[in-house]
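During data preparation, we tokenized the protein backbone, and the record follows.
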Amino acid sequence: MLDLKARSKLAPVLDPVAAGLDRMRMTPMFVTLLGLAVTIVGSVLIAAGELAWGAGVAAIGALLDALDGPLARRQGTASIRGAFVDTISDRLGEIAIWTGLAYHVREEPILLLLCLIALAFSLMTPYVRARAEAWGAEGRGGWMGRAERLIVSLLGIGLHGLGLPVLDIMLWAMVVLTGLTVAQRIRKTWGQLPAG
């Protein structure tokens, strides 16, 4: 999963940006909420049919969201409340993107259904992890963590907006791969839970 591997590789890029945000006296909470707001703006553009612009703006929102953690660590303000808000923001961002795309394809029943299923599996993926960790199990893993979901969905939306007809392919890939990720996490969690 990129969520686990990318952090160390992106640290040399994110840390200087976080240092700049720190000098501007921005708080991690502000950066989290700004990232969500930018993502929502991108989602509105997607809903309006501006797929390339919308995907690009939403990607900027996702990048902003990646900065709240490094900023919190730099400022020594990392907290459970901050992590909670970040998690909620992540889910709301995904809901916004899928809602915008669903509105865009509302006249095409199959694509609309695929959007809804992809959204459902995207929400189930972190839910399974949260339940696993609540019971002391390891709930990470699978092919489509949040980073992968954002890359595949926004890349597909953006390329379609640039004239490459890949929306159907992206939606089917999202449904299949996120569905398999949910199954992988359920299987992994099940194996760690006591039988009694």
About this structure: The helical segments are 2-23, 28-47, 51-65, 68-75, 80-104, 109-134, 146-161, 167-192. Residues 2-192 form a domain with the Four Helix Bundle (Hemerythrin (Met), subunit A) fold (CATH 1.20.120.1760). Residues 117 and 175 are 6 Å apart (CA to CA). The chain has a mean pLDDT of 91.
